[in-house]
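Morning, I've got a small favour to ask if you have a moment. You're getting the sequence in one-letter code plus the fold written as tokens. Thanks so much in advance, here it is:

===
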Amino acid sequence: MKPIYSILILFFFASCMNEVPDPDVDHVFDNPLDEEEVEYAFPALTFFPIVIAVSSGEDFDIEIFSMGFENLAGANIRVEYDKNRLEISSIIPGTIFEDINQEPIFFTEQNQANGWATITSSYLGGQTTSVGQEGSVAQLTFTSIVSGQSTLTFGLECEMVNPDDETIQINGFGEAVITAN
């Protein structure tokens, strides 16, 4: 029985030898969806993750998040990208407009020749007419087609609306940086 206790104690001390990360140096608590971490005003649109490293020819997923919107009923979002470095493979709905009774309206338009995609979605909930929390509007799958760095941005055409189809001002826009090797 003593050898088992000795082994357990040895494993305990061995596991404690790993360094505990320093949050100020290692940035282990940097979350781009945390209101305290972003460098723009709310309400805002952002990408997650905001930094992506892939191999050339590899697919990757990125989500569009709305942050700080209240009484949100619809979204029209333009994503712009470098058509020479990235190609959109698919766009699927996020979770912000999900409801147990009703699927959201969701459609997209893609223009690979000019490097943009437009996502239009609206909430059709049964009990309420809007949402008021952070959430994913859509998930995009891209393929990196050549090596190099590119940036995903939001176009000026972005619009968020309340249930009366009145525009809700967007005060901040995040970006995502993709590096393909």
